[in-house]
Prior knowledge:
- By secondary structure, the protein is of the alpha+beta class.
- It has one domain (about 5-180): SH3 type barrels, CATH 2.30.30.100.
- It is about 25% helix and about 35% strand.
- It is built from 4 helices and 10 strands, in the order H-E-E-E-E-E-H-H-E-E-E-E-E-H.
- It has helices at about 5-15, 75-85, 105-115, 175-180; strands at about 20-25, 30-40, 45-50, 55-60, 65-70, 120, 130-140, 140-150, 155-160, 165-170.
- Strands 5-1-2-3-4-10-6-7-8-9 form a 10-stranded antiparallel sheet.
Amino acid sequence: MKRKRAFEKLQSALVENKRVHIKRVFDRADVLEGYVVAVGDEWTLLWLVDSNYSVDGWAALRIADLFAIQKVNDREDDDVQRRILSVSGEWPPSVPVGCNVSGLAAILVMANGAARLISLHKEAAQPDRFWVGRTTASDERHVTLEELDPGARWDRSRVMDSDDITRVDFGSIYMERLALVMEPFVG
């Protein structure tokens, strides 16, 4: 999808507060569903909802990686979802404090401030993997992630090329529950 067209669709979904399905260019990449809550020049932020009408955190996505953006046009389903989220105190879509999608470094600062854990995705090379932890440093070229292992123990520092990171998730149910049992972060 051309960047200009993607930007227009994202802006429209943001202004109209419409739920969207987003497909990306990577083989086996997740199809994401939610509400656009911020649009920058290179990145966008999606407030994720799942098929059970539950909020599942945020995903920051590179706009260049978007293949298709479709607004959900099922009014009845959309109405039910909004009513469920409203009754549960989760409507309207939430924007993280200090929301900033001006670049990867700003997104990482926002994500680390909004959640105890974040996940970094390198979907071009490894669409089925992600790394969970907290970033401790980032610049235009590299990101340092203090990585949590599957046993919720701090494992090691991992340095990643900034250009390889395609998605940043935070505030998800999985990561919030993992944070309940992780070792204290010292960093």
